[in-house]
């Protein structure tokens, strides 16, 4: 009986001592530009990622689903509690009407992949 108690206590102690995995928290995953004239040129927005984990994380990649949308980001590690920013530009030239574009972002923390969306008219 005492052997079981010792085993359970050791297992619980080991579980408590495990490090917390890096966790990505996006402040927003969608941005609506609303209506604008294509003559204004490229429009930009920013998406912010907060590292709520105990280990540094980094953005390892970001790809848009078309050439009119361009994500810009730093690959420098983001310390726990700090924020990373992805700046997304959309070029409306020759693309009148409504649009919805997706940007897939890969990170070293969880979740590994996140889809961001921009929309507008």
Description:
The protein is mainly β. The chain has one domain (20-120): Immunoglobulins (Immunoglobulin-like, Sandwich). The chain is built from one helix and eight strands; from the N terminus they run H-E-E-E-E-E-E-E-E. The strands form two sheets. Strands 1-3-6-5 form a four-stranded antiparallel sheet, with no helix packed on it. A hairpin with a 5-residue loop joins strand 7 (99-107) and strand 8 (113-120). The longest helix has 16 residues, at 2-17.
Stretches where pLDDT falls below 50 for ≥5 residues? 14-20
Name of the CATH superfamily? Immunoglobulins
CATH class: Mainly Beta
> Whole-number average pLDDT?
86
**Rg over alpha carbons:** 21 Å
- The helix/strand order is HEEEEEEEE
Shape verdict: elongated
Strand content: 35-45%
Secondary structural class: mainly beta
SS summary, helix count: 1
| Helical content band | 10-25%
N/C terminus separation = 70 Å
**Number of domains in the coordinates?**
1
The CATH topology corresponds to Immunoglobulin-like
How many beta strands in the DSSP annotation?
8
* Main sheet overview: 4 strands, antiparallel
Write a concise synopsis of the structure shown.
By secondary structure, this protein is mostly beta strands. It has one helix spanning 2-17; strands at residues 24-26, 30-32, 43-51, 59-64, 69-72, 83-90, 99-107, 113-120. It has a single domain, classed as Immunoglobulin-like, CATH 2.60.40.
